[in-house]
Amino acid sequence: MIGTSALAIWLTLDPSGEEDFNNWYPRQHLPERLSVPGFLRGRRYRAAGGSPPYFTLYELADTTVLSSPAYLERLNNPTDWTRRVLPRIRGAVRNGCACLAASEPDTVEPHLLTVRIVPASGRGAAVQAWLAGEAVRTLTALPGVTGAALLGQETAGTAVVTEERRLFGCEVLGGPPWVALCEVAAPGAEAGLREFWRAWSTRTAAEATVDFYRLMYGLRWI
């Protein structure tokens, strides 16, 4: 991962507007987002089975980017194409995050495992301590994992209701307190990683929602 912050988005689309949305994203939306100062890299993924069917990760310079005047100006002045496709969104989880820990060097693999983590009552401090401490070493030792990033929720930059937000065809849900991202070199590693997180969530007393994605495309302008 690059930068010290991220915006993670899980999406479900109305099938009737999916083709138009999928044309809009790489042709207009992703370049537009990467033109905003502080957006370092954007990646979009499609689920390798399961749902939510789409995941996007924007890597950011820092947590102030999501409340910057340049970003808010873009959100409040959507293009005609943007106005047409955003109502096709039928499910959205949008999570602004600060990076707690990340492996080095930066890697981008063909597959990404996302884990949305919600601890049981009273277990938050223990979960955060593991994510910020041992998690990188533990996760990158798992078969198939070449990199990991651990993120903690930052709500300040995602709470503002903008013109784009009003266009969504659904309620936009806030993300979980923590997110883990695992860069995966081969799809055959998925089963083992799911088992790791199942055992981890039982042992730690936390809910871990695991989704496995295949990289569609990305853009980096720095």
Gist of the model:
With 222 residues, this protein is an alpha+beta fold. The chain has 7 helices and 9 strands; from the N terminus they run βαββααββααβαββαβ.
Strand and helix order: EHEEHHEEHHEHEEHE
Broad CATH class: Alpha Beta
What gyration radius follows from the Cα positions, in whole Å?
Answer: 17 Å
Strand line-up in the sheet with most strands: 1-3-2-9-5-8-6-4
Structural class: alpha+beta
How far the N terminus sits from the C terminus, by CA atoms, comes to 14 Å
Spans of at least 5 consecutive residues with low confidence = none
Bin the strand percentage: 35-45%
Key features of this structure:
single chain; 7 helices; alpha+beta; 222 residues; 37% strand; globular; 9 strands; Alpha-Beta Plaits; 8-stranded antiparallel β-barrel
Describe this structure in words.
The protein is of the alpha+beta class and 222 residues long. The protein has one domain: Alpha-Beta Plaits (2-Layer Sandwich), CATH 3.30.70.100. It is 29% helix and 37% strand. The chain contains 7 helices and 9 strands; from the N terminus they run E-H-E-E-H-H-E-E-H-H-E-H-E-E-H-E. It has helices at 18-34, 69-75, 80-85, 124-132, 135-140, 163-167, 190-204; strands at residues 5-13, 39-47, 54-60, 89-102, 111-119, 145-153, 172-174, 178-184, 206-220. It has an 8-stranded antiparallel beta barrel with strand order 1-3-2-9-5-8-6-4. Strand 2 (39-47) and strand 3 (54-60) form a beta hairpin. The mean pLDDT is 95.
